[in-house]
Amino acid sequence: MTAPMQVEYEDILRVWREADAIPEIEHAWLFDHLAPIGGDPDGPIFEGWTLLAALAAQTQRLRVGLLVTSNRIRPPAMLAKIAATVDVISGGRLDFGIGAGSRPSHPMARREYDANGLPYVDAADAVGGLAEACSVIRRLWTEEEPFDFDGEHVHLAGAFCNPKPIQRPYPPIVIGGRSAAVLRIAAEHADVWNIPGGDIDDVIGRSALLDRYCAEIDRDPASITRSIHLPVSYDQPSTTRHAIAAAIDAGFQHVVLGLSTPYPEGVAQWVADEVIASCA
Questions:
Q1: Is the confidence at residue 200, as pLDDT, over 80?
Q2: Using CA atoms, how far apart are residues 212 and 186, in angstroms rounded to an integer?
């Protein structure tokens, strides 16, 4: 994962092109913010879906996505159209990441809404909107006729998505979050559930809660791939290797390795050699 802030486009492109040629690296990710959430608050940051489209066009093998899209920023029908476009551009390599949006307790994230004239709803509304968005987006990707949708948060008339994504029935849906409310949505809609790393005992507990919510709706918990984001330490790669091993032991099959800037030359190959190979 290359967070697209405090960095130049050419640097991200270099890392993704390098990673695209390394079979041990299966996927590459950006995040979805409109203002930096770290470093210089007025520093450069790229819009995630625009950048993802550009990188998708310049890679051939990597699966690509945003970890994760904020459902607060774009109306869901528009987001479905954007994602379908990227899936076509990539030749069917999109993993569709989505979540409820930034926590209200994160002031660096909150300011991006005010600065861009976006409404910032409370957590309950954000979660409710996410549930409806997941339903609408799946319908837009699969239904062959226009439809209306009159929900509590989403209202559509004559909604239709053409072209459809290349992947059938639709790109894998990656839902990110750790709150109980988001886990309930993941139980219903997610193909992959992602959580930021940290306290591994908490991560294990959240995964067990997702199992419980799947059981409540009679869904096999094993049908949801468990994904975790872990930071890469350039100075102490053994720290990263230990974190990966603990996550794998906890049942996480999908590991996203966060790279900090500046990216060293050959960083993707270094990750493959010093981190991934030792965990195989």
A1: yes
A2: 12
